[in-house]
Design goal:
Tetrahydropterin Synthase, Chain A, six-stranded antiparallel beta sheet, 46% strand, globular, seven-stranded mixed beta sheet
């Protein structure tokens, strides 16, 4: 039976609550293969429909959202009319609280978020938009191949779209050149510094307090979709003095390096997920 495939149909950026690491940013790529009978056009499913309908289902489900493992014992969820509250305690007894408009949250029926369980839920959803001649769908999510990467979460309060969600994230590469040569020392320094951190504008902190002898930050802002709150340990955060767009992240790293090192021709290439980003030089 004939098959149709689309590689890298989409790349989805999101964060998830992890029992081991707390709040984690991630990027996955999507490959799709369909099997079925040919229709009157001699097609299994028109490529334009694959790119529109299947991609739309996947992106609306998880892209730029906070994925929550609803069966994890350290989780409590309360749903309101248009918002959701989440209390999460990881295995290191670190606590995370999030209040978000409901469209910023994605509940996954599992104890731990992983590719296999998300693929399974997506296949069920995608089947609903496929024509009857499609008999089998093979949907694969995968981590993009990069030189090396770090994972971060953030929220952009001024964004009109899904980037405003206070806890979404990315798996991102970082390239730093000094005098047109790769600076492995600075790359490793910043990757280690930002890995699995919540990157935030310091101005969004509305409260600092101590809980279980640890400093906790509460971030809050109002965006076009509603009110957002995120509270987590200061040791899980990295603060800058601007919005955390990739342009500002690249600029921040650039400024920090030139203030601490004698460089002649510095370039910072910061990625936001896969195949996109910003350069400060």
């Amino acid at each position: 039976m004939p098959q149709l495939f689309v590689e890298q149909l989409a790349n989805v950026d999101f964060s998830y609550l992890c029992p081991d690491y707390g709040l984690v940013g991630e990027t996955w790529l999507l490959d799709v293969c369909l099997q079925g009978k040919l229709d009157d056009q001699g097609m299994i499913f028109d490529f334009s429909n694959v790119k529109h309908e299947i991609k739309l289902v996947v992106e609306e489900f998880i892209d730029h959202k906070l994925l929550v493992p609803v069966n994890y014992e350290g989780l409590r969820v309360e749903k309101h009319l248009s918002s959701t509250e989440i209390w999460f305690t990881d295995r290191q007894q670190r606590e995370i609280y999030c209040h978000s408009p409901t469209q910023g949250i994605c509940e996954i029926d599992c104890m731990t978020i992983n590719i296999a369980v998300v693929e399974q839920q997506l296949v069920t959803m995608v089947k609903k938009v496929l024509p009857a001649n499609v008999t089998t769908i093979d949907l694969k999510l995968k981590i993009p191949e990069t030189r090396h990467s770090y994972q971060y979460s953030h929220g952009l309060k001024k964004h009109e779209g899904a980037c405003q969600h206070i806890a979404h994230g990315h798996r991102s590469d970082l390239k730093i050149l000094n005098n047109k040569q790769i600076s492995a020392e600075w790359e490793n320094f910043w990757i280690e510094k930002l890995h699995r951190k919540y990157l935030a504008d310091a101005k969004d902190i509305v409260k600092k307090h101590t809980k279980n002898n640890k400093l906790v930050y509460r971030f809050s802002y109002t965006a076009s979709q509603g009110d957002y709150v995120l509270e987590l340990g200061a040791d899980q955060c990295y603060l800058i003095e601007t919005e955390t767009t990739v342009e500002y992240i690249a600029e921040h790293i650039f400024n920090q390096i030139i203030s601490n090192d004698s460089v002649t021709d510095l370039s910072v290439r910061a990625y936001e997920g896969f195949h996109k980003g910003a350069i400060a030089s």
